[in-house]
Amino acid sequence: MKAIVTAGPTLEPIDPVRFLSNRSSGQQGYAIAEALRDLGFEVVLISGPVALNDPKGLQTVRIETAREMLAAVNDQLPADVFVSVAAVADWRPAETADRKLKLDKGAMASLPLAENPDILKTISHYGLGHRPRLVVGFAAETHDVVAHARAKRDRKGCDWIVANDVSGDVMGGAENAALLITPGGEEEFARAAKSELARNLASRIKQALS
Ligand code: C5P
Predict the structure, then answer these.
(1) Dist. CA 3 → ligand 1 center (Å)
(2) Phi, psi of 70 (to 5 degrees)
């Protein structure tokens, strides 16, 4: 069975030296890719820029922007499962300057933005045969976790949502706690190492596809 996992942030260039991005470390996505590999999946990990080594025994595709990430996912379809762990930048600079912008000319007094594609939503809405059998999204929430995550599942059109409460030190940290929301109900994953959460999720995925 083939799995596609996205991980890390995306990086959206302003000019040759500047960019918009976020603090995602990639740890949770890499751990999920490794856990799926350990269960026998053929895994393609599509990763934004992170300070992690390519895991052994799976294919890692490095990209920078959200649009590159979407193209890389499309290149890897069909797959049995798509797990969208990446913290995709919602916005990118409307234009990327090919020369370093000069602040003294007021060029960056405002920065026009354009909306990035929603990769999870796009993949979730592919038709039969093209859409992976199982599409899993992540939802980082700080409050009303279940209600917001359920709404997000409907909005994105994915099958499962892994909701994490990021009100603490989860972003960039080694541990995570989460709630798996499926059409059948909810399952709590207690606070544990990201690798343990990854193993739990990977085994649910394998069960669901078997
Ligand atoms: O809407 P929000 O960013 O909170 O949704 C998070 C989920 O959507 C994650 O699974 C993330 O990988 C995915 N996402 C995406 N493309 C975007 C924004 C979010 O795939 N442009």
Answers:
(1) 18
(2) -60, -45
Please name each of the domains of the chain with its CATH number. Answer: 2-94+112-209 (3.40.50.10300)
Q: What is the pLDDT of residues 30-75, one digit of tens each?
A: 999 999 999 999 999 999 999 999 999 999 999 999 999 999 999 9
What pTM, to 2 d.p., does this model score? Answer: 0.95
Separation of CA 111 and ligand 1 centre (Å): 22
Q: For ligand 1, is residue 66 a contact (CB within 6 Å)? A: yes
Alpha carbons within 13 A on the beta-carbon side of 111: 17
Asked if residue 159 has its Cβ within 6 Å of ligand 1, the reply is: no
At 74-107, the pLDDT tens digits run 999 999 999 999 999 999 999 999 999 887 766 6
**Which residue's alpha carbon is nearest to atom 5 within ligand 1?**
139
86 lines ligand 1 (CB under 6 A): yes
Q: What residues are annotated to the active site?
A: 22
